[in-house]
């Protein structure tokens, strides 16, 4: 049986918008051998089409259906809860678009959820509104727990901090390492965890998410986690390779 593949993007396939060594060979092999696969990203501010364009600029052509974001997982999770369809959103258009696609109405009037993603226009007014709405009963959802992105700029986890500190309410994070995102991705490609490999560069998100979801895991050393750091974790990846180009078979 041909295995399915879930693969992180930044540090695995691209780094600073340049292809990681061996990435094109690896993806070409996935396509040639017919592996169902998705590129997973905690970054909620780009649509699959945006991500396709990003990779194409780096020299890799992959169809939009091979991308799955924390924004898409967040919308799917909220839909599965059937606990209201009104949301107040702090984030970019990709997050709003994913929520619209699942039938949600974006509003500041008595929303069922405050949904936090990432935005460079984050400001005091947004924080103030989110605090007020959460205090009035809106549930606090965030797309991902990352404090900073690959470029070092503040990410969703950092933006959640002031709202959490003031309200005393911890957001429910949907993205990696939450196994929900992994299960949602598996459903997207009709795969099962026992026949799926999770490939990533981060022990604290990609690898633990794969392990908790019952998948084989491959850590690549082309991104966040170094070989020396592996020993500090109480869990281990199934395999460790320099980059995806060294993965002969999944």
Characterization of the model:
The chain has helices spanning 23-33, 48-58, 70-81, 93-101, 124-135, 156-167, 179-189, 203-212; strands at residues 4-8, 14-15, 18-19, 37-41, 67-69, 86-90, 105-106, 113-116, 139-142, 172-173, 196-200, 216-220, 239-241. With 250 residues, it is α/β, with parallel strands linked by helices. The protein has 2 domains: 4-42 and 176-246, HAD superfamily/HAD-like (Rossmann fold); 71-173, HAD superfamily/HAD-like (Rossmann fold, 3-Layer(aba) Sandwich), CATH 3.40.50.1000. The protein has a 6-stranded parallel beta sheet, with helices on both faces. Strand 9 (139-142), helix 6 (156-167) and strand 10 (172-173) form a beta-alpha-beta unit. Helix 3 crosses helix 7. The longest helix has 12 residues, at 70-81. It is globular and about 55 Å long. The termini are close together. The mean pLDDT is 95.
Summarize the structure.
The chain is α/β, with parallel strands linked by helices and 250 residues long.
Strands ordered across the widest β-sheet: 5-4-1-11-12-13
The largest β sheet comes out as: 6 strands, parallel
Instruction: State the CATH topology of the largest domain.
Output: Rossmann fold
Residue stretches low in confidence (pLDDT < 50, at least 5 long) are none
Q: Work out the strand percent.
A: 15-25%
Shape, principal axes of CA atoms = globular
User: Would you tell me the overall average pLDDT?
Assistant: 95
| CATH architecture designation of the largest domain | 3-Layer(aba) Sandwich
Number of helices: 8
First-residue to last-residue Cα separation: 11 Å
Q: Could you tell me the radius of gyration in angstroms?
A: 18 Å
